[in-house]
Amino acid sequence: MPSAEELFDKADLNGDGSITKDELTTALNDDLKTNYPDEYEEYKSYIPTIVDQIFGSIDDGDGSITMDEYKEYLAANCTTMLYDASN
Ligand SMILES: [Ca+2]
What we know:
mainly alpha; Recoverin, domain 1; binds calcium ion
């Protein structure tokens, strides 16, 4: 199980410390092809929607996700998940 930081590094294709929509799209395509080769053709049409949802949740509006934004998102969502699980 890769850590959150490893996933971020994997998606940050040019290594500049932020993830653009193009980089996230490419990373999701690669991940889908590698892990779900049989479902890839079926699922790939959903990728733009997933990318838009992730950017809608994380991005502050500049079109790229930084490691700080990403960690804040994970931290906020972990808290929500723990809260939901404990109630
Ligand atoms: Ca980048």
